[in-house]
Design goal:
single chain; two-stranded antiparallel ribbon; alpha/beta; about 30% strand; 9 strands
Length: about 160
């Protein structure tokens, strides 16, 4: 697992969303992007995080911020998650965790004494020029929209 830092260029990516539409970092040139990595659709923490972003969407859009979620779930799982919670943003499919490897968020985790590889919940706030403006390494899932707005600070 390697770590990116604020001020680094965001790694270029290409990934499919829940509807098999391709998204690339280049598609969002000139726009602020929140690329948030989360472990799994329909789990409590991930649901709280997604719903925080959903509930804060008007403020995020007013600040010119596009939200993209990323997890190892397949497209059908993402569609169900979006439909169930009326999420107004796309979720990218990363079943082979290649995008998570690229951003350094896939790696060893520990839970109840067990070690396993998984997603480290992390959010990257990317400026319109493709630079990482902020990294939220341990988001507060129920307050995530406010964290994102604060992370972009005066630029929003």
């Amino acid at each position: 697992m390697h770590h990116l830092n604020v001020g680094d260029p965001a790694p270029a990516f290409s990934a499919l969303d829940q509807n098999d539409k391709t998204h690339t970092l280049e598609d969002y040139k000139g726009k602020k992007v929140v690329l948030y990595f989360y472990p799994k659709d329909n789990t409590s923490g991930c649901t709280n995080q997604a719903c925080s972003l959903r509930d804060g969407m008007a403020d995020l859009q007013a600040a010119g911020i596009t939200v993209l979620g990323v997890s190892i779930n397949h497209a059908a799982s993402h569609r169900k998650f979006i439909d169930k919670f009326e999420l107004p943003f796309d979720l990218l499919v990363d079943e082979d965790h290649s995008l998570q490897d690229l951003y350094g968020v896939w790696g060893l985790k520990k839970f109840m004494g067990r070690e396993y590889d998984g997603t480290h919940r992390t959010t990257f706030c990317i400026d319109g020029d493709g630079t990482i403006a902020a990294i939220i390494r341990k988001p507060k899932v129920k307050e995530h929209a406010a964290e994102v707005l604060a992370a972009f600070g005066d630029e929003s």
